[in-house]
Amino acid sequence: RWLVSGEQRFWSCDQKLIEMNLSQIADNIPGYDKSLLTVDIFNGNGVNGFAANIAAKLRDRNFNIGRVDNAETSEFTRIYYQEEYQLAAMEIALFLEVEAVLIQDHYFDSENPVAIILGLDLVGR
């Protein structure tokens, strides 16, 4: 993003975004086609409408949203992903601004390659 100071403009990158890009390069994490990805969102924090709100924000960022539903209470946000969608899981965690637990596995209640369980760690953000 551009920062302006007086008449000068400076480019500033988010540190977490830089770290994610470095991690992608270092770990050789492949990119993915966002148009082929569908994300399921499950509310595990008990706040009414929270999952629907996150779903709308992810849609605004061109993510395809599948199922939006409730889950059992979860202390921490978890993102389940299939191997080829690791970068998507990292991007979503960055978007949520949370130290999400990334799990390379299939979430039992989801039929899509990425499923987010929104935890109590997101309440009040």
Please explain how this structure is put together:
This protein has a single domain (about 20-120), classed as Alpha-Beta Plaits. Helix content is about 25%, strand content about 25%. The chain has helices spanning about 15-25, 50-60, 85-95, and strands spanning about 1-5, 10, 40-45, 65-70, 80, 100-105, 115-120. The strands form 2 sheets. A 5-stranded mixed β-sheet has the order 4-3-7-5-6, with helices on one face. Helix 1 runs antiparallel to helix 3 (about 85-95). The longest helix has 12 residues, at about 15-25. The radius of gyration is 16 Å and the shape is globular.
List the helices and strands and how they pair.
Layout: E1 2-5, E2 8-11, H1 15-26, E3 38-43, H2 50-60, E4 64-70, E5 78-81, H3 86-96, E6 101-104, E7 114-118
Parallel strand pairs: 3-4, 3-7, 5-6
Antiparallel strand pairs: 1-2, 5-7
List keywords for this structure.
Alpha-Beta Plaits, alpha/beta, 125 residues, globular
Briefly, what is this?
With 125 residues, the protein is α/β, with parallel strands linked by helices. It is built from three helices and seven strands; from the N terminus they run ββαβαββαββ.
- Helix residue percentage: 25-40%
Distance between the termini: 22 Å
Number of separate strands = 7
Overall average residue pLDDT: 86
Major beta-sheet overview:
5 strands, mixed
Topology pattern, helix = H, strand = E:
EEHEHEEHEE
* Class computed from helices, strands and strand pairing: alpha/beta
Q: What is the CATH topology classification name? A: Alpha-Beta Plaits
Rg, nearest Å: 16 Å
Shape: globular
Task: Output the strand order for the largest sheet.
Answer: 4-3-7-5-6
How much of the polypeptide forms β-strand, as a percent range? Answer: 25-35%
The number of helical runs is 3
Text of the CATH class: Alpha Beta
Ranges where pLDDT stays below 50 over 5 or more residues in a row are none
